[in-house]
Write a sequence for this structure.
């Protein structure tokens, strides 16, 4: 006989209890926890992998940047070494146009960089294949650093540059206004020349002002290293370049051949005609329609005034040294040779006033004097002074032939016309 359970519902409850007891619930919960721990581990490994990859990339990039920075520094040092050589050559050539550079490298103690300088004349082949224009010289300097990096700097250099290479040169500023002009013309034919009538100021910080419808048919250079913002010019009033000098143009003070300070006054007045032979004189005045003729040679005046219709006349080359001050009307200076080099004024001190209309031909060298050209006057030649004002419709016509004349006691330098890095 089989015994039938008297309480089937309790049996079912017992079976249900088996599937709901904590004993059987523990297994799936452990599986879930294990899966969570595995997912966390995988995520951690992925994060670590990403971080390692990023760190490696940063190291690679950083290494590349360091390498690039190192190369950049080496390049700069090589350029600096080359520039040192080029500027050394410019200085040597300014003192001696026949200077020959060493054939071995020169070492710079601070960085152990080196430079080697080579000079090339027009028509001579050079390693960088540039054409050297007539009258210039190529200075090619090669800079090298211990790592082996090299760079080259080339200067186009004009040697023997002095005050008379400029239409106007001053120590402390140039002003051109009131419809005035500076250009380059043939003094014989009055034909306009292509040679630039450049102007320059030796002192950094001093200005060149070209305004009021005035013009310069050439370049304008402020003092060494100065900003071209110091060139205050109407648009288009300067046809050449704006720049700064590579070095001050030597302006040697005027030394008188003799002392005229105690000599008696002289000159010509009241329509008289007087002729002087070379020599020394006190204050010289020419006025009242008189004429003072100067024979060729050298003169020393304490001062010189030519006004009131007076005339100062020459027939050939004269050099006139003046101790203190020049006051003349442009039309009063008679130079029929039309060669500015034949009438040179060398003024040691005092103002230089060139007034009123008319035309003359001359070189005015007054490095410590304020110089003015005004009243619609026209000068063929050069004006050199402590400062210069060209105003009221006046004209300065530069004569390129003046450059070969030289100025007694005047020095020369080397002018950097252009610079290029190779």
């Amino acid at each position: 006989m089989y015994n039938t359970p008297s309480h089937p519902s309790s049996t079912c409850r017992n079976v249900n209890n088996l599937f709901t007891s904590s004993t059987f619930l523990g297994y799936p919960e452990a599986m879930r926890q294990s899966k969570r721990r595995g997912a966390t581990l995988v995520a951690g490994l992925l994060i670590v992998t990403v971080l390692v990859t990023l760190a490696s990339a940063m190291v690679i990039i950083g290494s590349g940047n360091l390498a690039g920075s190192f190369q950049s520094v080496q390049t700069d040092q090589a350029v600096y070494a080359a520039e040192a050589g080029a500027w050394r050559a410019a200085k040597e050539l300014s003192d001696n146009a026949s200077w020959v550079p060493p054939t071995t490298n020169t070492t710079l103690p601070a960085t152990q960089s080196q430079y080697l300088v080579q000079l090339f004349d027009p028509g001579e082949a050079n390693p960088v294949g540039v054409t050297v224009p007539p009258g210039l010289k190529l200075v090619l300097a090669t800079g090298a650093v211990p790592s082996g990096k090299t760079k080259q700097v080339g200067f186009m250099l004009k040697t023997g540059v002095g005050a008379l290479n400029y239409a106007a040169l001053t120590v402390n500023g140039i002003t051109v206004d009131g419809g005035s002009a500076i250009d380059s013309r043939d003094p014989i034919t009055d034909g306009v020349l292509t040679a630039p009538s450049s102007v320059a100021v030796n002192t950094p910080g001093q200005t060149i002002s070209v305004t009021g419808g005035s013009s310069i048919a050439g370049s304008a250079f402020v003092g060494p290293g100065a900003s071209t913002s110091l060139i205050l010019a109407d648009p288009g009033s300067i046809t050449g370049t704006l720049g700064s000098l590579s070095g001050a143009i030597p302006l040697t003070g005027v030394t008188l051949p003799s002392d005229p300070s105690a000599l008696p006054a002289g000159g010509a007045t009241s329509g008289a005609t007087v002729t002087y032979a070379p020599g020394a004189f006190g204050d010289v005045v020419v006025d009242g329609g008189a004429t003072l003729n100067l024979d060729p040679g050298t003169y020393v005046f304490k001062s010189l005034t030519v006004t009131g219709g007076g005339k100062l006349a020459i027939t050939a080359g004269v050099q006139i040294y003046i101790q203190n001050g020049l006051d003349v009307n442009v039309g009063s200076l008679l130079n029929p040779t039309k060669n500015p080099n034949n009438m040179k004024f060398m003024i040691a001190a005092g103002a230089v006033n060139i007034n009123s209309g008319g035309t003359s031909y001359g070189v005015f060298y007054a490095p410590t004097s304020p110089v003015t050209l005004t009243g619609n006057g026209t000068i063929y030649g050069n004006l050199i002074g402590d400062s210069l004002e060209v105003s009221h419709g006046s004209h300065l016509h530069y004569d390129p032939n003046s450059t070969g004349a030289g100025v007694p006691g005047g020095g020369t330098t080397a002018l950097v016309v252009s610079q290029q890095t190779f």
